[in-house]
């Protein structure tokens, strides 16, 4: 044991030593730590300071170094989430070199996000920048596997380990790229976007599983999209976003710094963004608690990197430039100036550009210049030209025009593309171009709007998005404008970015013919045009007219694609494209219902079109991908309709106050046909619904209904049902069906011959009742008259026999065969049996409440009187036979009668209470295909049967104990047999009655037999042997049991005088004799109390002589005084017991004189009219 402890301590010390040598511990919990994030936005490839003198990479270097030195190098990360590359002049000139890469490394950026600017010049330029770049670009929802080079340089997530205070902390980084990046940049086949929320959620879950302490996401999708993501994804702590100027101190900021959003798990997510210029930088300081997984904002804000203006003592509000980087940037600027600051022409008017959004929501003079320059440069290769307003990035100031200015106006390396479009496709192209015009505020995507040359258009902003172009004209060879002919071909030119599908122009990518994307650079065309026509003086010419008019149908080519918002409480809509004169082959209509917040539901009716082919009409929740559910036939169904299902012909009810109805069709829809819709909203839940928890409308359950505006569901009345959830009303059960209860969902069929006089009940015809077991109306079972007559006759016969027994008892009551059996109890047994037989008449009569009560009363009272008397006789025998003491015991008939009376009283009280509380009543009993009435059973009857059973069991037990007792006339055996018979037959017959389903006659017969074979059989057993003895003339002769031999001493005188005190005399009577040798037998005419059974049962063996009875009573009264003398005599008798036994057996061949001998005691028993006294 000691060796084991030593080894354990050694191993423990070894482990501690190795842990110390291994270095800092990794964190999987632990104490909180502070962390700083510096973030920029929209560098756009600019390294030099801005026009306001602030910012620039030289100041970045100074600030980054200062913060890192204050927080320790590893407690700070520098992140740019959006457009690190872009269109600034520096990057235009040096994009083919590694200059920007070198500056990025020297300044110390850690992570970069992917925006459209990263791909303005294509994937190759991005790959060139990332080569040897120390900053890591993270784009979780971007797939670049098609490019091995980019795939090795762009990561989906990163885990960065830093040591803070000697403890390793793991920082997880994910990056979100805007999903529309490829519509605004040149992705080619290399870059593919993925759904952001799913990709980010999966990556964050993996990082959390790896044990990171902090998860940071940078994003180029914008603050709105990032707020939505933060509320949908667990595990993100901080989001570095873009497109919102956050600050708590800078004037003109769009919002406070930071914004906090709760994740689905309830943890706060910190979102920050700074100004989109290199003059500003955001600085965020947080505290991370690894134990709780929470991040707390400590301090932070956006900061202007102000110049120090060569002040010898700069204030803390300015940021000095790093001298080495500033010098290098200055040298590069000289190179740029030598190439670009050459005057090529003169501009008479200042032409607004991107700064004022003039070229994205209407005609702009600078757009006219660029479009005209394209058409002029191609020298007749195109009849019309159009260029997206988003490609014009800066105004052109009045005065000298240099190459630098032209590069700022068009900073992209686009070429001019030429191609042919059919007129219908040209209409689709410009309908898409104008879709977002007139929206305020202007949404993302307005840069697709075309500036034109050789064309005119009219745009109606009152029309929905996608249907705003109401007229489009082109200039013919006669310089006249004519409407576009959908079937004519047009020669067009635009920049190669748009022709390749940029900004969502899929029709230019897929439907253009004779395409040539390798025209001259657009910048060169503008330069040549200005040099050719200098001075240039462009102005607005009415090429694009914008109106706001109602009922102006759009022009439609092959496609009708638009969106419209409806906010009125109710209204109608007719497809705008149905008014056009063209036949469309593709349709995409999106209608947004934005109802007041007070509305809870709306009804929608759709018509006007027939769905065919792959047509699809869907009603969705706003900004959701899954269909809304409408309620029909008690079920929620998705509101998605195809050519198979067709449009519903009924009103659709939706529990919502907003929806998007989208109809997409690739089938031809002819003139004057289009989607039509009517809708009406309500502040109430619709019919069939009520307001539930959470202020949501919930459908009424089965068996209930509601009307519009109800606050609670109402139960359907009996006879009415509602079979579906959300029922508006209840329907009545049809003929042949019924429902007796309320709030039910189905009617019950009236089967088995039943009829329905009302919808609430089904009944059988008169004389029939419905049997649930077999589902049939069955007739009442009639009694068999013959069976009834037989049993009634038997009952009558038994009553007569009881009368004969009573008469015989009365006539011969002086005979010993009756007197020795307690005549009073024999009479009571007869009365009890007669009462019990009375229940048989009730059994075979009509079942009514009265007959049920009479049957129970007669049967149980008869049992109590008859069996109670029998039980008391057995009890008295048992007591007399089994008492071995020499004390005097009196068991008079009056005592037994008192007990019997008590039993009858208790039984009567029980029956009275039973009748008052739960009297048996007639109830229907079905037997196969018939029914009859029986008296109901209850625990009252069961309890009484149990008590009676216990009484019978006790009687059996007592009878068994006295089975061998000396008995004159075999009375003990007859009583015992009666008790056994009663118990056995009562149990068997009741089991049969309760466990079988007999017919009415059989059931009545069983109940009658229960009386016949118990009480009446008992009477027969007790009386018939006695009557037989009387008839044969032996009514006064005692019949001893053959096994009874009780010896006694030869000189014992068994006479009442033996119990009298010394010196007294008692008159002789025939009951006394002296046992003297051989005379014992011959003189034994009768011995008083010679039958133990007769004694125990109070046998009345005395003559009617009154003086004799008086003498007996006198003798009993004096018996107590002789107890002491008798005890002495008994001792002497014990000694002579054996000799006496032998002598008596020798006399008369073994005939015995009946003397009760128990053990070593010899007992004499005297019977008087008062009862039995045993000494």
TrEMBL record:
Residue span(s) of domain G-protein coupled receptors family 3 profile: 787-1031
Residue stretches spanning the membrane: 785-810, 822-845, 857-875, 896-919, 939-960, 972-992, 1012-1031
Alphabetical GO biological process terms: nucleotide catabolic process
Keyword Signal part of the UniProt annotation: yes
Annotated stretches, region: Disordered: 1060-1079, 1097-1124
Main subcellular localisation: membrane
Classification via Pfam families: 5_nucleotid_C (PF02872), 7tm_3 (PF00003), Ephrin_rec_like (PF07699)
A GO term for molecular function: hydrolase activity
Annotated family: Belongs to the 5'-nucleotidase family.
Protein name: G-protein coupled receptors family 3 profile domain-containing protein
Native organism: Capsaspora owczarzaki (strain ATCC 30864)
């Amino acid at each position: 044991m000691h060796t084991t402890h030593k080894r354990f301590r050694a191993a423990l010390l070894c482990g501690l030593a190795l842990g110390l040598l291994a270095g800092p511990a990794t964190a999987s919990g632990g104490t909180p730590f502070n962390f700083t994030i510096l973030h920029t936005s929209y560098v756009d490839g600019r390294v030099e300071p801005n026009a306001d003198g602030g910012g620039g990479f030289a100041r970045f270097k100074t600030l980054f170094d200062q913060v890192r030195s204050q927080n320790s190098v590893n407690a700070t990360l520098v992140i740019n989430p959006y457009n690190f590359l872009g269109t600034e002049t520096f990057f235009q000139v040096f994009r083919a070199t590694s200059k920007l890469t070198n500056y990025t490394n020297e300044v110390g950026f850690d992570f970069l996000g992917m925006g459209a600017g990263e791909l303005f010049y294509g994937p190759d330029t991005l790959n060139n920048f990332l080569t040897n770049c120390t900053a890591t670009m993270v784009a979780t929802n971007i797939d670049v596997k098609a490019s091995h080079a980019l795939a090795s340089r762009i990561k989906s997530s990163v885990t960065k380990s830093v040591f803070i205070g000697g403890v390793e902390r793991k920082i997880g980084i994910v990056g979100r790229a805007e999903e529309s990046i490829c519509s605004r940049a040149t992705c080619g086949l290399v870059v593919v976007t993925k759904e952001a929320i799913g990709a980010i959620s999966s990556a964050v879950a993996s990082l959390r599983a790896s044990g990171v302490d902090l998860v940071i996401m940078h994003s180029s999708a914008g603050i709105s999209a990032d707020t939505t993501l933060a509320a949908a994804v667990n595990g993100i702590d901080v989001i570095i976003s873009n497109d919102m100027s956050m600050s708590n101190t800078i004037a003109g900021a769009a919002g406070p710094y930071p914004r906090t959003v709760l994740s689905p798990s309830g943890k706060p997510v910190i979102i920050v963004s700074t100004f989109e210029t290199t003059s500003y930088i955001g600085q965020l300081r947080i505290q991370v608690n690894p134990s709780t997984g929470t991040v707390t904002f400590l301090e932070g804000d956006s900061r202007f990197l102000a110049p120090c203006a060569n002040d010898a003592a700069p204030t803390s509000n300015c940021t000095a430039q790093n001298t080495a980087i500033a010098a290098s940037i200055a040298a590069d600027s000289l190179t740029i100036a030598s190439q670009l600051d050459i005057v090529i022409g003169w501009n008479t008017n200042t032409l607004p550009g991107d700064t004022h959004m003039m070229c994205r929501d209407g005609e702009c003079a600078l757009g006219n210049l660029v479009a005209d320059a394209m058409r002029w440069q191609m020298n007749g290769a195109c009849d019309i030209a159009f260029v997206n307003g988003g490609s014009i990035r800066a105004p052109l100031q009045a005065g000298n025009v240099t190459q630098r200015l032209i590069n700022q106006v068009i900073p992209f390396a686009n070429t001019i593309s030429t191609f042919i479009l059919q007129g219908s496709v040209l209409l689709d192209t410009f309908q898409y171009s104008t879709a977002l015009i007139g929206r305020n505020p202007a949404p993302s995507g307005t840069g697709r709007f075309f500036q034109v040359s050789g064309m005119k258009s009219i745009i109606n902003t009152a029309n929905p998005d996608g249907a705003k172009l109401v007229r489009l004209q082109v200039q013919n060879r006669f310089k006249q404008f004519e409407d576009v002919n959908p079937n004519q071909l047009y020669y067009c030119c635009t920049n190669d970015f748009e022709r390749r599908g940029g900004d969502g122009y899929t029709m230019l990518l897929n439907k253009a013919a004779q395409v040539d994307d390798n025209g001259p650079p657009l910048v060169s065309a503008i330069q040549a045009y200005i040099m050719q026509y200098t001075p240039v003086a462009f102005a607005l010419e009415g090429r694009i007219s914008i109106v706001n008019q109602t009922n102006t149908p759009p022009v439609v080519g092959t496609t009708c694609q638009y969106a419209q918002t409806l906010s009125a409480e109710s209204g109608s809509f007719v497809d705008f494209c149905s008014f056009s004169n063209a036949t469309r082959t593709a349709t995409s209509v999106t209608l947004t219902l934005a109802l007041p917040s007070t509305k809870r539901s709306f009804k929608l009716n759709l018509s006007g079109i027939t769905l065919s082919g792959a047509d699809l009409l869907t009603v969705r929740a706003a900004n959701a991908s899954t269909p809304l559910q409408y309620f029909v036939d008690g079920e929620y169904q998705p509101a998605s309709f195809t050519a198979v299902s067709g449009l519903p012909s009924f009103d659709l009810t939706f529990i919502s106050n907003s929806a998007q109805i989208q109809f997409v069709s690739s089938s031809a829809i002819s003139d004057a046909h289009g989607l039509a819709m009517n809708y009406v909203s309500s502040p109430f839940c619709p019919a069939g619904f009520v307001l539930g928890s959470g202020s949501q409308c919930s459908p009424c359950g089965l068996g209930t209904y509601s009307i519009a505006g109800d606050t609670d569901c109402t139960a359907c009345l009996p006879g009415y049902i509602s079979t579906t959830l959300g029922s508006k009303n209840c329907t009545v059960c049809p003929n042949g069906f019924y429902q007796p209860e309320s709030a039910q969902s189905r009617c019950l069929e009236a089967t088995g011959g039943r009829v329905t006089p009302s919808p609430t009940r089904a009944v059988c015809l008169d004389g029939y009742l419905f049997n649930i077991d077999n589902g049939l109306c069955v007739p009442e079972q009639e009694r068999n008259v013959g069976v009834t007559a037989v049993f009634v006759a038997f009952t009558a016969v038994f009553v007569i026999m009881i009368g004969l027994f009573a008469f015989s008892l009365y006539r011969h009551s002086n005979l010993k065969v009756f007197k020795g059996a307690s005549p009073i109890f024999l009479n009571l047994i007869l009365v009890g049996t007669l009462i019990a037989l009375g229940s048989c008449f009730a059994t075979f009569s009509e079942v009514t409440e009265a007959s049920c009560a009479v049957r129970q009363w007669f049967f149980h009272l008869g049992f109590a009187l008859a069996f109670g008397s029998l039980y008391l006789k057995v009890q008295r025998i048992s007591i007399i036979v089994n008492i071995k003491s020499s004390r005097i015991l009196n068991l008079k008939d009056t005592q037994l009668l008192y007990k019997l009376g008590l039993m009858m009283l208790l039984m009567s009280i029980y029956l009275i209470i039973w009748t008052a509380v739960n009297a048996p009543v007639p109830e229907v009993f079905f037997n196969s295909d018939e029914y009859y009435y029986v008296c109901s059973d209850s625990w009252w009857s069961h309890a009484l049967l149990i008590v009676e059973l216990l009484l019978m069991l006790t009687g059996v037990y007592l009878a068994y104990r006295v089975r061998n007792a000396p008995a004159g006339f075999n009375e003990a055996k007859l009583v015992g047999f009666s008790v056994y018979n009663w118990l056995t037959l009562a149990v068997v017959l009741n089991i049969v009655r309760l466990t079988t389903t007999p017919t009415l006659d059989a059931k009545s017969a069983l109940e009658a037999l229960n009386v016949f074979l118990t009480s009446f059989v008992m009477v027969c057993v007790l009386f018939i042997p006695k009557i037989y003895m009387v008839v044969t003339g032996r009514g006064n002769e005692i019949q001893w049991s053959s096994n009874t031999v009780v010896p006694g001493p030869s000189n014992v005188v068994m006479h009442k005088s033996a119990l009298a005190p010394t010196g007294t005399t008692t008159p002789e009577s025939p009951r006394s004799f002296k046992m003297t040798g051989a005379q014992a037998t011959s003189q034994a005419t009768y011995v008083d109390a010679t039958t133990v059974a007769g004694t125990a049962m109070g046998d009345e063996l005395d003559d009617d002589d009154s003086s004799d009875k008086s003498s007996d009573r006198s003798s009993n009264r004096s018996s107590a005084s002789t107890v002491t003398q008798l005890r002495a005599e008994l001792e002497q008798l014990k000694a002579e017991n054996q000799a006496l036994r032998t002598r008596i057996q020798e006399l008369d061949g073994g005939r015995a004189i009946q003397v009760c001998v128990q053990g070593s005691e010899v007992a004499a028993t005297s019977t008087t009219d008062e009862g039995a006294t045993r000494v």
